């Protein structure tokens, strides 16, 4: 007889009446539970890796439990140490009264005293980064948004240690879609989500001017507001965010030049956000 250690079988749940072989078990091996659930069980027949063995008598018609859940009914009496498989387990008749979400656990104990190097926004949300976003309303303004962001390299941002970067938020849509249709609304929700994300400390909206996904629709429909363009808690009154259209500015070069100037004005205020 070989006396096996815990590694031979594993019980997946305290209420299980079967254990699972973690390696091939031979006739005469002995399973010695280490979880205090029952006494030693002698293997009554060879059991392959991954198969089940009864740890107690499972009478005909009794439920077989694995993971603490019903997996079948014993079709005959199954003795301790016997292999449990389709030859002695069937689906059987079983009725249950199913209830959903009927167990409401109590609130977990709050974890106190933990902090992380993040940013606390004026509305109470926590951010892990402090970016300035450039939100492109349409594919036609994506390149301009990218050009604006590229003007702010590590050397420029080195003077603003609390600003993690300038992020162009671009996509390939926004034009030739139904105004107010599902595609338009979905795109607008995503762009509003960018603007309202706690990791965005301030943002600039850049459009072409003739696209379906107009910046005015975006700001009005989703009530996009910003504290003087800078949600840094500086006491400024909320108002509509800064919007630029390439056609209004007179082309890509002028849009990029003006956008760079606007973001440079934003940097000092966005940098006031401190890590807490």
Structure description:
The chain is of the alpha+beta class and 276 residues long. The chain has helices at residues 142-150, 154-157, 182-196, 215-221, 246-249, 252-270; strands at 9-10, 18-21, 30-31, 41-42, 52-54, 63-66, 69-74, 83-84, 89-90, 119-120, 126-127, 131-136, 165-169, 200-207, 226-227, 238-239, 242-245. It is elongated.
Task: Give a quick set of tags describing it.
17 strands, 4-stranded antiparallel sheet, alpha+beta, 4-stranded parallel sheet, 276 residues
Question: What order do the helices and strands come in, and which of them pair?
Answer:
Elements (H helix, E strand, L loop, with lengths): L8 E2 L7 E4 L8 E2 L9 E2 L9 E3 L8 E4 L2 E6 L8 E2 L4 E2 L28 E2 L5 E2 L3 E6 L5 H9 L3 H4 L7 E5 L12 H15 L3 E8 L7 H7 L4 E2 L10 E2 L2 E4 H4 L2 H19 L6
Parallel strand pairs: 12-13, 12-14, 14-17
Antiparallel strand pairs: 1-2, 2-5, 3-4, 5-8, 6-7, 7-9, 10-11, 15-16
Helix pairs in contact: 1-6
